[in-house]
Amino acid sequence: MLKYKGKLRETLKDRDIKQSQLAVDAGVPQPYISRFDKSEQHNINNLFAVANALGVSVEELFTVEESNEDVE
């Protein structure tokens, strides 16, 4: 089973961008930005807005990991 982990916090730190600034640039609510990495579901419009504001692909906002958990 594949699991994904958000890496927005890491991206913002690397680029020295504050969450509040990204929220303005992307036109999304700031709480969405602060919960991004912990969220398991994303609004597709917000997801693409964040990626576009950072100039990255959606895939670059996540790390995909293999999980040994059984799926029932």
UniProtKB/TrEMBL annotation:
Q: Which SMART domains match?
A: HTH_XRE
Q: Give the matching CDD domains.
A: HTH_XRE
Question: Which domain of life does the UniProt lineage start with?
Answer: Bacteria
Domain HTH cro/C1-type intervals: 8-61
This one is known as Transcriptional regulator with XRE-family HTH domain
Q: List the lineage, top down.
A: Bacteria, Bacillati, Bacillota, Bacilli, Bacillales
